[in-house]
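Lecture notes, unit on protein representations.

Consider one protein chain, 225 amino acids long.
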Amino acid sequence: MMESLKEFVWDIIGYLIPGAFLLIVFNFCLDKREFEYDDFLIDWEVFGTSLVVIVSYVLGYLVYSFTKYKIYLQDRLIKFIIYLNYSRDNFITRFFKKRHSEEWKEQFKNSKLYEAAIAKLKVEYPTIDTMEINEVRNILMSKNPTQSETIYTFMFRSSIFDHVSTIFMLVLFIYLIQLFTSIELLKDDIQYKYIYLSMLISVPLLGNSKRFFFPKAMRIPFSNL
């Protein structure tokens, strides 16, 4: 019961924080002169806290969808770049392969730790070598539920880094459109240009942080056999 409650709370927070951050960023960056109201999406003085929470939670799902699509496009682009490089084993191929969302799986499946886990569970689960890493991890987590909190913490950190990166990229995409069109949605003062530049610099750094925490969260159950 407590584990289910924890998962529910993590789920709520996992969507609420990205949605709230999206709301804050757009309230900060959008040029309010282009809108009828003083505040974008929500008039903070009129609507109560409960509605802000609901809107943030719903927007969290939107951010999640954008993140999934971002990862899909990123992986396709990486594959295309590697293809253009004729899959040669050089710096370019290694650099981009590390940034593919599935690359860590291939490395982990070839590790001694994963092989040892599969060998140990083979008797109890004869078809375990055909299972995905997520499925094997879930089996191991069910055998050692005390480690769930640490795993959820790392997964949560990973997703937050990913969602913040998505929000920054969304702002930068809108600003890029604004540069080449007559659309003026974002503030364009000099101080905001520095903020957009900071977002641009932060995107790859956030990606590195995500790639640090996510594989770690996946490996923890295998390390506690």
